[in-house]
Amino acid sequence: MFRLAVTTLRYRTAAFLAIFVAVLLGGALLSAAGGLLETGLRLNAPPQRLSAAPIVVTGDPAYHPPNGSGSAAFPERHRVDPAVLTKLATTPGVAKAIPDRSFPAIVTSTNAGTAQSAGSGLLAGHAWTSAALTPYALIAGQAPRAGQVVLDQRLTGTAKPGDHVTVTVSGTPRTYTLAGIAVAQHQVDVPSVFFADADIPAGADAIGVFPADGTPVRELAKRLDLPTGVKAYTGDERGVAEFSGIATGLPLIIMSGVFGGMVAVVMALVVSATIGLSVRQRRRELALLRASGATPRQVGKMVIAETMVVGVIGLVLGLLCGRIAGTWIFGMLADGGIVPTQLRLDQGPLPFAGAAVLTYAVLRLTVGFAAGRAARIRPIQALAEAAVPNVALSRVRILTGLVFAGATAAIALSTPFMGPANAAAIGGPAGLTGSIAVAILAPLVIQRALIPRITRLVEKRGTSGTLAVINLRVRAVQFGAILVPITIATAIAIGNIYSQTTQQRAAVDAFTENLSGDVVITSTAGGIPASLTDSARSMPGVTAVSELVRSKGWIEEPYDKSHTSDAWPLLGLSGPVYTGKVKQGSLDDLTGDTVALPPGTAKKLKVGVGSEIGLRLGDNALVKVKVVALAEGPSGYESLLLPAQLLAAHTTSGLPSQLLLKTDNKLHRDLSKWPGTSIGGRELLGEGLDTGLGVDAWIGYLLAAIAVAYTAIASINTISVAVLDRRREFGLQRLTGSTRRDVSRMLRLEGLLIAALGLVAGLVTAAFTVFPIAMATRGWPIPSGPVWILVAWIAVVLLLVLPTTAITGRIAMRPKPMDALSSPVG
């Protein structure tokens, strides 16, 4: 039977090519998902600017809730107490300890011309003593003194030591003398601006520790006596101290799990549909084998053997492509800001082994079901169904399909009652369960639910239309194999994309609608300096000014269990621009160490106006603040309100990020005095807003990409298999008077109908995800998002189905009618 199975491969090229490509893509994507998982677990980021220090000590960049549930990255840099430096310097085995402090610094110009900028908002400023952590070496000039700077050679332009340079430090431009020019001894992505120790802000972000001669690095790192919340890193882990965002691998771990699971499910559905179609088209061949003495077990083994040969070859090639797929997906995540660009993709043997086992298991299970059906069929029944395929579904299959359909409805009905934070997690699976329901019940969907409603419309197209409707009804099982990938892809792609755009819009609207003001000033030079705020207050036509500071934090005293690893949004204000209803107290008292809480949170924590609570801010500082007001916010999008000055002091830049102005006329103001600042309308309020949807959005977009890829592969292959299998039918039609043009018109109508049915079924399925999420997040069932995405998707499906049908139809009609009737394929 194995030899027979191998022999049949060359006669079933189209069908086995479909399986081969689906398994290849599945193996590659599962390997990529495994690489994301390993990367999230290891979190290796080779250091650049701190690479000379064998040990780097820094504050733990991850917040660990008091209840021990999960962890989350601190949104700000967690600085080290200066006392730690003194303690480390006197530790036995430590040769020296060098502190590092990073802050925003941008070279604006030199007296020799414009210099190269280090980049907007980058933490390029450092003390000259920290140059040894790279190390940097002077190639001209000398170390800086007060009022002087040393520049990375890439920033100097044509300037030379002794020239004057303008450097914007923390939003304020200042003039310095260029003391020297330095070059890093290895690659450093962000060129540095070095200042004299007296000219830098106080504090330390990290401490580079150099062991004494003969002291093992890892041994010294383990025995350093560090306070709680401070850690020592060695090797590639040192990048955690240098690059922000490398605190916890939870986002990558979640993404890899969802991504890998969806790949496995979609691959199983596509491979199952393709194998099922191939087996159904071979009923006559399998029936003849049974009639000639083959046992059910032998027939089943043959189907399994031929499919597994193709599948294993596809799996091997897929694993070989896994590294390419992993690098490509990881690169997109880095470009999208989900992971730092400096994080290294780790894709060792385990991801490939896991992908191989999972892909093989999916393939073996799906082919096992198809082989079992082929083995059980009786010879006479197979010959009859080969002529007229049986559309009847078993009770078990119908019941299973109804269960998934019921689950889809239940999910959709419960989602609107969830909060915005849980809407996607609850409502998202509706697209998948709905797709599975359609995949299981596809023949009935085609024959009983949809065909009767379009019969009259299509039959007006003449004989070709009548034949197309008859073929759809009689060949509902075969067309179901084409319908399934289109439906799944439409449901996943449209459902995920519009769910994300809807949630994103809802989050931005919830933030901006609570703030009054018509002019926004932003800065890419590290923040809004106090001089700009004072100047804005004196601008003609300005009636109110407020600094805006955004960060995240946690309520620890008393402990708020509703926000553990997910932090509270913190909003810092310094003026009367908040429009939410104040239930108690007054926002005029929001000065000093104070806070305004949502009324529901205050009730749950049993605190009120006048109570004192403890907030864990984004830099790990625990501050005691007094509750001065209970202010409402949009349901599900509430924020804790703090004085801008208090919150800004605990951010990485130390400055507000925006300035919001109320004006009574159109404002025109020259901001050239503050480089990097820009002025605009309210639409700038939403720029850079962390809606907390970054990982979720990328999961949705990756799933949409999977859907597109699998739709292209599955649709092209299943259409090719189904059309090429009808050579005899086309030959008979041509012998009875139909022309090639008539047959092509019939095929075109069939393709158009099945594409339309797939799109309709997919859009209906996606609606069970999108509309409930819109209800939960926006309060009404109208999703947000560009219409062109839907139009583009419809065009993609039509461009996949119609040209493939036309091309394979011409290939199928290439033989003469009499030769087609004697074709071995059928």
From TrEMBL:
Ranges where the ABC3 transporter permease C-terminal domain occurs: 258-376, 702-808
One Pfam family matching this protein: FtsX
GO MF term set: transmembrane transporter activity
Organism: Kribbella soli
Chief place of localization: membrane
Claim: Lyase is one of the keywords in the record: no
Membrane topology: Multi-pass membrane protein
Family to which the UniProt record says this protein belongs: Belongs to the ABC-4 integral membrane protein family.
Compartments, as annotated in UniProt: Cell membrane
Keyword line: Cell membrane, Membrane, Transmembrane, Transmembrane helix
Protein known as: ABC transporter permease
Membrane-traversing stretches: 252-279, 307-330, 350-375, 396-417, 423-446, 479-498, 698-724, 751-775, 787-808
A cellular component annotation (GO) from this entry: plasma membrane
